[in-house]
Amino acid sequence: MKNRSFWDGLAMGTAAGLMLGMVMLMSRRREPTPMERTRMVVGRTARQAVRRARGVIGDMAGKFSD
Questions:
Q1: Cβ neighbours of 26 (radius 10 Å)
Q2: Domain boundaries in the chain?
Q3: CA distances from 21 to 9, 16, 18, 24, 60 (A)
Q4: 28-50 burial, b if ≥16 CB within 10 A, otherwise e?
Q5: pLDDT for residue 2
Q6: What is the structure's pLDDT at 14?
Q7: pTM here?
Q8: What is the distance in angstroms between the CA of the first residue and the CA of the last residue of the chain?
Q9: Residue 34 gets which letter from DSSP?
Q10: Residues whose CB is less than 8 angstroms from the CB of residue 31 and which lie 6 or more positions away in sequence, other chains included
């Protein structure tokens, strides 16, 4: 009996995943509004800046620890 509930859960998870994937694909097709596009660009720029800052801080810490 335990095995059957596993397969039921797997089927339910697969169905939910497929539905979610279809919804995401359908919503991605439409063109983002200018506000959404700006938010995406700002978010990407902020992430890159944080990554660069971490690298610089890591370099400085490395120099001081020598």
A1: 9
A2: 1-30, 32-66
A3: 18, 9, 5, 5, 43
A4: eeeeeeeeeeeeeeeeeeeeeee
A5: 57
A6: 92
A7: 0.38
A8: 62
A9: H
A10: none
Contact, 55 vs 48, CB < 8 A?
no
CB 40 within 8 A of CB 32: yes
Q: How many residues are recorded in the chain?
A: 66
Task: Identify the pLDDT of residue 66.
Answer: 59
pLDDT in tens, 6-65: 878 888 889 999 998 888 877 766 677 888 889 888 888 988 888 888 888 777 777 776
Cα 65 to Cα 17, 54, 56, 57, distances in angstroms: 48, 16, 14, 12
Place of tokens 């097709």: 29
